[in-house]
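Input/output pair, single chain:
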Amino acid sequence: MKKKRSRLFQLIIIIFIFAIIYLSAIINSYSLRRNTMDADAGNTAAALSMVMERSEYGLKYGRELENYYGIDEVLLDIKRYCDAEYIFITNEAGEYLYGEEPPESLHEYIRDMENAGDRTQVYEEGEIQYIVHSILGKENVEGYVGIAYARNRTLSISDKYVKSIMWRALFFSLAGCLIFEVLFHVIDHKFDKKKLRWMIMVTISVLSIGTIVSTFFILKRGYEAMSQEVSANFLEQNRANIENLIDQGLAYSDIKGAEEYFSKIAEKSDQLQGLSLTKSRPGEKSSYVELPLDDFGEMYYLSVVLSEKYISDRVKSAVLNVVVTMVTALMLAGEVLGFLIDIIGGEKKRRLLRVDNKEHKTIESIGVVRGISFFFAGFRFMAVAFMSIVLTRIYRPVTIFGWNVPKEILMSLPMSSQIFISMITSYLSGSFIEKRGWKRAAIGGVAIMIIGTIGSAFASEPVSFIVAQMVMGVGLGFAKMGIDIYAVVVSSNADMSEY
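Output:
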């Protein structure tokens, strides 16, 4: 292989090494940030429901929400315990009663809550996080309370660890490139596929071990810090409640139902194993605060125990992400390697031969065909595998000409749209392949599928996600027909018998 082609080959492999390391880093960074925001939203929703439970007692005994005495104190408690930027309370129809004006989209989410039978709805609009909670009266729902705050308020917790993940990714990427270059120039491989495959496997295996160990320790510290932040917030919120009771002259021994109350709070948070009010000093595994002396000179402690299972599950999930990424990279490396060697170092074939191939001559190396087919299958099946997961995360009600699209229909539209468009483009691709050849159709189709995949990844609402899947369908039709026509019509008898 000429020097220019050899350098191009090395450059592509180096880019491949950087890509797999940074892909793993990006996945785990996103997971950490997302889990931090989800934990914050879940705990804020728990705090909101606990505040409203106290207010619902009055409603169950005949008070009216439209003329609720002491609503200012309720709003103040919500703002204090939920750290909300603004708060709104509406009647059962979603019409404004107290606080700030509710968002226009509230009615759609109220309908979703009613259909699903849920009491709490957490959703996002742009950079704003909304939490809506139903208010129960004597018999039915009498209204809704909602809060809003900036989604990125938890970034200060995760950013430190995200930066560590990215710096480690840079270190391991550079180390991987160094290992590959040393092996590439020391071993007399003569571009033998088996030797090159061995070199790449060794490089990726070494990187896998280093990345897994590094990821474990960084994310363990990250999730511990997140859980500690949650525990600190719960301690601070509930200490204020207890201190208020003590200031009113109540003794700790007179506080009834504290164990049940704190148990309900802990159940609503994945990060907490237990929350308790105790007379004895808690053990080392607990975070706690000292409470003031009551009128009888007794001092109690408010303690919280972090859930080790939550931290362990999240870290295991992150390590599994790394393992899956590296195993996938090892599988991908074999196909990429054959594709690169054949397309960079192989002889120029009769690649624009018409589809009939009456002379029955080999017109393309198997490495190139396998590479294109592998990329096509990868993008096709990965899109199907993650479609429902992505759409569930970005789901929000969609209205078309005044008609609210049911969630069941909306969830099925991406796949239906992709298949429908691919049927059309499969038909249209026939004349294109007849004029331009199978390879341009296959490569062009895969390129369009890549564009659709990128569009799907950045979609923030169902409509844009469905459009991205339709783009995927365009590429799917051309790529599939190009590969099928090569396999059935263009390949020679030698190709079919040898491979």
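Confidence is low (pLDDT under 50) at residues 347-358, 495-499. The first strand starts at residue 86 and ends at 91.
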